[in-house]
Amino acid sequence: MSEQQSVNRQTFDQVMLPIFSPAEFIPVKGEGSRVWDQQGKEYIDFAGGIAVLALGHCHPSLVSAVREQSEKLWHVSNIFTNEQALKLAQKLTSATFADRAFFVNSGSEANEAAFKLARRYAITKYNPYKTKIIAFKQAFHGRTLFTVSVGGQAKYADGFGPKPADIIHVPFNDLEAVKAVIDENTCAVVLEPVQGEGGVTAATSAFLQGVRKLCDENNALLIFDEVQSGMGRTGKLFSYMHYDVTPDILTTAKALGGGFPISAMITTEEIAKTMEVGSHGTTYGGNPLACAVGNAAFDIINTEEVLNGVEKRRELFIAHLNKLNDKYHVFSEIRGMGLLIGAELDGKLLNRSKDILQASAVEGLMMLNAGANVLRFTPSLIISEEEINSGMVKLETAIGKLLK
Q1: Domain at 313, CATH number
Q2: Of these four, 103, 130, 135, 268, which has the most CB atoms within 10 Å of its CB?
Q3: Is 201 annotated as a binding residue?
Q4: Can you cite a GO biological process for this protein (predicted)?
């Protein structure tokens, strides 16, 4: 314990780059959907590491996958392949539209690869001017210079010098806006089927189907960023499966490793073959340690029991939120899909999501927001009914105290 007491929340302000403003407590242990801090206080976790901990903290199968693999082989680089990466690629391709997979370590890297691939495909197959990328306002695609420029929130991209060119942003769920800007020089349309950071907004079926048609008419690729919405989060393995719309490229990360850094970009044979040896790369991507955890997580998430359980848990959350709203009138809308839930704030709590997060922590609840005015729920996909009930009581207490 002595080692732990030698660092505290103030240590962060002394030694870390000041780009985060973490909570006042420091989590030190987690199990399922419960977490304990340095002082031993218990919390219910509705944040799930921002949709990462799909199977909760320290799931036994993931723990044993790490342990077993850590005693065999950690890293060989991409000069060699490895069994765990090949197995995970087989699982991803046989469960989806894709034929080929590429593994990296984060959502940003998966999206970076997707955007580079889309440009390469268009330039190789059509002409050097087919480079326009259409993306959406309020979208979030990562923090590298390319991905943050494709993301539709200027506050994250401004102030870092010239941005990559030929990227255009239009309003989400607005098919006419896409129609107005798509042309023969468009290489790709990029979107999150459910916008996460931007406020938990799901695409409409008509919008996604319309975008797919426009892409086909203009020889443009459709890229789905399922970093947050994928891996069971919406009740299907990937959220495109709800819409009867198939993308050309899909990225996934967050829940893919259940907390271990791993991400993937998957695509078809036809598109993949425009990349040749040396055209892109990664040092850690597809390492045996990450892929072993990915395999263990995939085998549990891609089961009827887990996927069907998502909708049941969603209904329980929604019932609690509606009840809370009847009492306090603090939400204008509750939206999202599966266990990616957004509650838009209203009335006395307008734009006060951060206050709610702090008040919730005091009650022993780890919460998330999606901007100043949306509470975001991305708990474990296997969180127990009892933990949902208990966490919602804490949220209600926190909101009650704030309103007083």
Answers
A1: 3.90.1150.10
A2: 103
A3: no
A4: L-arginine biosynthetic process
The verdict on residue 321 lying in a domain is: yes
Point out the domain boundary residue: 302, 322, 356: 302
Q: Is 140 known as a binding-site position? A: yes
Total count of domains within the chain: 2
Q: Read off the pTM.
A: 0.96
Q: Say if residue 228 carries a ligand binding annotation.
A: yes
| Residue predicted with more confidence, 205 or 6 | 205
Asked whether the beta carbons of 307 and 236 are under 8 A apart, the reply is: yes
Cβ–Cβ under 8 Å, residues 72 and 288 = yes
The residue assigned the tokens 């973490």 is 22
Residue with tokens 């909570």: 23
CB 256 within 8 A of CB 231: yes
* Strand, helix or coil for residue 75: coil
Rounded Cα–Cα distance for residues 370 and 51 (Å):
12
SS3 at position 25: coil
DSSP 37: E
Instruction: Find all residues with CB under 8 Å of 287, minimum gap 6, and list them.
Output: 74, 75, 76, 82, 85
Structure confidence at residue 278 (pLDDT): 87
**42-45 and 249-252 beta bridge pairing:** unpaired
Torsions phi, psi for 356 (to 5 deg):
-65, -40
Residues 6+ apart with CB under 8 A from 4: 28, 38
Residue 366 falls inside a structural domain: yes
Q: Is 192 annotated as a binding residue?
A: no
Of the candidates 32, 51, 112, 69, the one whose C-alpha atom is nearest the C-alpha of residue 291 is 69
344 and 245 in a common domain:
no
Token reading at 219 = 């020889």
Q: What is the pLDDT of residues 285-334, one digit of tens each?
A: 999 999 999 999 999 999 999 999 999 999 999 999 999 999 999 999 99
Q: Strand ranges (DSSP E) for 239-357?
A: 249-252, 263-267, 331-337, 340-345
Residue 400: strand, helix, or coil: helix
- Average pLDDT of every residue of the chain: 96
With respect to residue 2, please indicate whether it lies within any of the assigned structural domains.
Answer: no
**Segments forming the whole domain that contains residue 248:** 73-302
> Which of helix, strand or coil describes residue 286?
coil
The annotation status of 97 as a binding-site residue, yes or no, is no
Check the annotation: does 225 bind a ligand: yes
DSSP-derived letter for residue 204 is P
Residues of the chain with pLDDT > 70: what percent? 99
State whether 246 and 318 are in the same domain: no
